[in-house]
Amino acid sequence: MSDLTDLYQEVILDHNRQPRNFGELVGADHKARGHNPLCGDQLNVYVTLAGGGVIEDVRFDGSGCAISKASASLMTEAVKGKTLADAETLFKSFHELLTGDPSVHAAASTELGKLAVFEGVREFPVRVKCATLAWHTLHAALSGDTERVSTES
Amino acid sequence: MTIDTIPKTDAKKAPAAFDVERIRKDFPALSLSVYGKPLAYLDNAATSQKPESVIEAEANWYRESCANVHRGVHALSVRATAAYEGARRKLQGFVNAADAREIVFVKGTTDAVNLVASTFAKSRLDPGDEVLITGLEHHSNIVPWQLVCEERGAKLRVARLNDDGEVDMEEFERLLSSRTKMVAVSHISNSLGTINPVERMIELAHARDVPVMIDGAQAAPHKRIDVQALGCEFYAISSHKMFGPTGVGALYGRLDLLASMRPYQGGGEMIRTVSFESTEYAEPPARFEAGTPNIAGAVGFGAAVDYLLAIGLDKIEAYEEGLLAYATEKLSAVPGVRLIGTARHKAAVLSFVIDDVHAHDVGTILDQEGVAIRTGHHCAQPVMDRYGVPATSRASLAFYNTREEVDRLIAGLAKIREVFGV
Lengths: 153, 422
Ligand SMILES: Cc1ncc(COP(=O)(O)O)c(C=O)c1O
Hints:
The structure holds two protein chains of two kinds. By secondary structure, chain A is α+β, with helices and mostly antiparallel strands. In chain A, 44% of the residues lie in helices and 19% in strands. Chain A has one domain (3-150): Sufe protein. Chain: A, CATH 3.90.1010.10. A seven-stranded mixed β-sheet of chain B has the order 4-10-9-8-7-5-6, with helices on both faces. In chain B, strands 13-14-17-16 form a four-stranded antiparallel β-sheet, covered by helices on one side.
């Protein structure tokens, strides 16, 4: 049986209460708006890129459940200073952690660092979209696809 | 056409007093466990659980009467037709329509609203005309009207809600004008529980010769419906919210109006004669039932109506009122909880928000405790916007729910505070 404390890890609760990099990034050169119609979560992700495709700064705002807010917060910490390619790879590993074959993702969790706290989400399939919303939105912002992102598309 | 009279209640089956424990035994799903805990099913506004009699009626139809309707000469087809038309007469009795031909079997309330919007309303709307709805409507009583308004160059007007979730009746009256060609309102709101003063709304609309459609999806499982007393032109209900099968519903329409309306969809069953040059349409209700209908669903729907009438809607309403009062008191006493929807006349729907905890997290934690509620916008985004919340948690009760289940909801909320430390 899945346990609530696996889902609501202390780190997640902390980032929910005090999200990092929260608030609009003025002068962002990339941004996108994400929406999860199932629960009404809405968030904006803002990015400024430095030369060489490095994520110089990234912030988010909006409203959402604990999982989506904490995921956005931890994501901003994880990708800041990374190249676009590295951020994409991280997204893939993160996605794998939530939805993939558990025997495969064991290796991936080292590279995920703090993001591994979301492992418990895989036991709550309806919440996977909450955890990935920020990432999908970041992806949209970086691929210049500034249309609204929806988890239902 | 002869009209069979249907007994309002079956005296033999009706329990003497309201015996909720005995009623619960009729519903197999109510003895399920989830995560090792007994299920407390408090999501009845989304859909309801089904009594054994409904499940059996549908299964038995497949076992013993399965054939197409209105087509065959053989014994089973005759039996199937009798069962299907029998269900129609049960629905007639349930809403107290004057004539069984006023009952059209549809997929559900959504389908019924689309039917009326795209046939009846479409032919009456001219550019500049208006359709009036209210601020508490379900998306299914908004979007079909938007579509037809857009197509006809007409305008959708919306009567606002006050802070308690009641329609502002002064505004409702003010918005009724010579341009208004249709009024469409919910009898009961699925997101707020508000019981609309539909009698008054119909009276006001009729004073200006405006026809009225009532979305009764949330009313039919809780209240006695009498379309003749109401005098509305159309009334829509969904079987699945009334302890019947999914995929079927009923549209009541006044016979003279149905007879004047163009078909909704073309196909088999809805015609009298067809040639490649022209087609003569069947009389209602067949005109609006193109193709093979959901026969088994209709039969199960009939069984659900029998079940509700055997208990008695007046008893159901009284019991639920008590349960609502209990739940409202308990929920209001939980620190940090704010009820959304505090109308004076309310059905047993409790929408609420908790300080600093998103509805989605509330839903997950309660689920782990075996308590099933719904979280989100409840297909009523304008209602969420009106109260400035992205989503609510909603417990919606039925006559088979108990005070113990309400207590488990309250205990689950304490658990949330524990997890979130709020
Ligand atoms: C008030 C109201 N109207 C309409 C509907 C739509 O009913 P259905 O999905 O059965 O077509 C619902 C169901 O959620 C409802 O609550």
